[in-house]
Structure formats: C-alpha cells, structure tokens
Amino acid sequence: MPIQDKRHSFFLFCSDDIVGPESMEKFCEDIGVEPENIVMLVLAWKLEATNMGFFTKEEWLKGMTSLHCDCTERLQGKLDYMRSQLNDPVIFKSIYRYAFDFARDKDQRSLDMDTAKSMLALLLGRTWPLFPVFNQFLEQSKYKVMNKDQWYNVLEFSRTVNTDLSNYDEDGAWPVMLDEFVEWHKARIAL
C-alpha cells in the first residue's frame, strides 16, 4: 500500500516496503536527475541503503528525515549540497568505500569487474587523470573481480601517486594489481 502522507507523496512504496529499479527511474525523473548521476550514489549513502537500485521504506524515511526533506522540492534543493559532499576528501573516501559494498552482489565478497569499472568511472573518472589508462589496463587484464583491498587501494593510489608515476614505490605495499598496472603503463610509455 503506498504511503498516503502528502509530504512523502513523491515516493511510493510497494506492499513489501521496498521500491525497485522501475520506481527508482520514475523517482529520478521526478527530481530531474539521471539514475547514473553520482548524486544518486551520494543519496544512497545518505540513506544508508544496502542494495543498489532498491530503497526500503525504513531507509527512505530515516534518510529523508536526516536530510530534512518532506517533498520533491526540498530534495531537489539538497542536490547541490549532496554534490558538494564529494569535494570533501574525508566524506568522498567514505562514499567511495560505501560504494564497494553497495554495488557488489551480496552473496559475493568482490565486485565483478564490469561493475567495478562502472563505479570507478562514476567516482574517479572526472577527477583522476590516469583513470582512462587504468580503465584500459582493466579491460585487457586477467582480472575478473576486484576485492575490497584492491578497491580501497585504487583510491589511495589515485590520491598519492603522480600522473607520471615518478613517486610510485615498487617496494610499497600496493596490491599486485596496481604493481601490474604501473609495469603495464610504463611499458606503453616506453614504446
């Protein structure tokens, strides 16, 4: 049964108190945001949603209360604020880490590589100059999944290693995947 409360009429719940992808598309249309927009990931983080593409009634009500939103217009008014959260390095790191568990199949410990590449593009694609090269590396690599350690270290790598890789420490504690990326990229540059 949908929520009849007029303040929350901008979001309807099924009888099982969960909305899925079709309702999410309609919701995104209502607030004027593409489903693939990074602000939707920030919203999910704010709601502490556990499954990509789904919100529970409890997550929704708790999150909207914390955002002080009771209508579409108020939520639309919060979109710039949510986007600005991405500019704070500590908050961004929290959102980035959240994205791993949010996007993975709950019966898997790792992210499948297609999902990992999509999420990395969303999170780092516009801010990390080496992202296009790293994405090419992943395309041709043997890796089929990305584990949590690799995921966390990609962010650290993107923040600390120079674009020309000049400060990359080969004896550092980077995951093998990143060592292989550096080796692969250096070989390409040498050509």
Please state the overall shape, judged from the principal axes of the Cα atoms: elongated
The total beta strand count reads 4
At the first level of CATH, the class of the largest domain is: Mainly Alpha
Gyration radius, in Å = 19 Å
Keywords: Cytoplasm, Cytoskeleton, Nucleus, Phosphoprotein
Main location: cytoplasm
InterPro entries: DCN-prot, DCN1-like_PONY, PONY_dom
Organism: Sinocyclocheilus rhinocerous
Describe this structure in words.
By secondary structure, this protein is mainly α. The protein has two domains: 6-86, EF-hand (Recoverin, domain 1), CATH 1.10.238.10; 105-190, Cullin, PONY binding domain (Recoverin, domain 1, Orthogonal Bundle), CATH 1.10.238.200. Helix content is 57%, strand content 4%. The strands form two sheets. Strands 1-2 form a two-stranded antiparallel sheet. The protein is elongated, with a radius of gyration of 19 Å.
